């Protein structure tokens, strides 16, 4: 799990709640059912009207994705590709077919299968890049749902504010009624801002980051797969793929590489 995302969301809501509870005499006024219905119901209803229902059904899964760290470590993927390059140099590309059953990543498995089948390198790149393109489109849809929620929530807060002001004007001679109408006017704006800034927009932003990380990893795999097919030296493959990594991850890769060499030396 991504502790930063979870901690950030919890901290954002906690700070607001604690600030409200610091004045316990007035804390109850922040719980207002009509305002809740206007903002939460209106936001979700507008989102359902804007996007297909099958995409709305993916919201829980998308939220879980935002809370999770990326499953694949780029340094581990590079180490795996380098080992495959070493095997291909020793035994030929057809020998890689034995490793397909152990490969968990579907994209990498598909690329290696194309290479083993003798597919033209340009066609291999084209097929994998098309898959990356459609992957980005699917990711963009999930981000757009949360971005839309983040944009309409404050709008429904403003609708609630207008409703409260209209109610206030119709009861201008009744001070008690004015107070209740003003409560609707202000609390709906608060609810809309909270949904947008402490839920929808942060989740959309984190999904965008997850998407960029996954696309970069897939691009790394494409270069590695084509290097395998070209029969490049494993050391050259490693140096080429290291350009996708940050300096810290390059150090981690060097440590993994050293541990692998020690294991191979012990085995021999």
Largest sheet composition: none
Structural class: mainly alpha
Specify the overall morphology: elongated
Helix count equals: 10
> Over the alpha carbons, how many angstroms does the gyration radius reach?
27 Å
Count of the separate structural domains: 1
Separation of the first and last Cα atoms: 39 Å
Order of H and E elements: HHHHHHHHHH
Name the beta content range: under 5%
Count of β-strands = 0
The average pLDDT score comes to 85
Helix fraction by DSSP (H/I, runs of at least 4): over 70%
Report the uncertain regions.
none
Textual characterization of the structure:
- Helix 6 runs parallel beside helix 8.
- The protein has helices at 3-21, 33-50, 53-56, 59-67, 74-91, 106-116, 121-170, 175-230, 234-242, 247-267.
- The mean pLDDT is 85.
- It is mainly alpha-helical and 268 residues long.
- The chain has one domain (32-260).
Short description:
The chain is mainly alpha-helical and 268 residues long. The chain has 10 helices and no strands.
Any chance you could write out the topology, listing elements then pairs?
Elements: H1 3-21, H2 33-50, H3 53-56, H4 59-67, H5 74-91, H6 106-116, H7 121-170, H8 175-230, H9 234-242, H10 247-267
Give keywords:
single chain; 268 residues; mainly alpha; 10 helices; elongated
């Amino acid at each position: 799990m991504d502790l930063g995302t979870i901690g950030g969301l919890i901290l954002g809501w906690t700070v607001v709640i604690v600030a409200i509870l610091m004045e316990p005499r007035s804390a109850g006024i922040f719980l207002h059912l009509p305002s809740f219905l206007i903002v939460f119901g209106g936001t979700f209803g507008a989102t359902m009207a804007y996007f297909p229902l099958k995409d709305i059904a993916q919201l829980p899964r998308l939220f879980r994705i935002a809370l999770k760290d990326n499953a694949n470590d780029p340094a581990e993927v590079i180490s795996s590709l380098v080992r495959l390059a070493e095997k291909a140099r020793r035994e030929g590309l057809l020998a890689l077919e034995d490793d397909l059953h152990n490969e968990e990543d579907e994209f990498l498995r598909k690329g290696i299968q194309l290479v083993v089948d003798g597919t033209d390198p340009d066609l291999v790149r084209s097929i994998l890049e098309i898959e990356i393109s459609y992957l980005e489109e699917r990711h963009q849809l999930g981000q757009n749902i949360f971005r839309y929620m983040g944009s309409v929530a404050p709008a429904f807060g403003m609708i609630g504010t207008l409703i409260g002001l209209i109610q206030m004007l119709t009861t201008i001679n009744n001070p008690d009624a004015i107070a209740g109408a003003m409560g609707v006017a202000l609390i709906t704006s608060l609810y809309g801002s909270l949904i947008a800034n402490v839920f929808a927009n942060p989740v959309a932003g984190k999904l965008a980051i997850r998407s960029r990380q996954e696309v970069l990893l897939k691009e790394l795999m494409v270069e590695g797969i084509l290097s395998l097919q070209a029969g490049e030296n494993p050391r050259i493959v490693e140096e080429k793929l290291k350009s996708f990594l940050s300096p810290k991850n390059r150090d981690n890769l060097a440590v993994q590489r050293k541990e692998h060499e020690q294991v191979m030396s012990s085995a021999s």
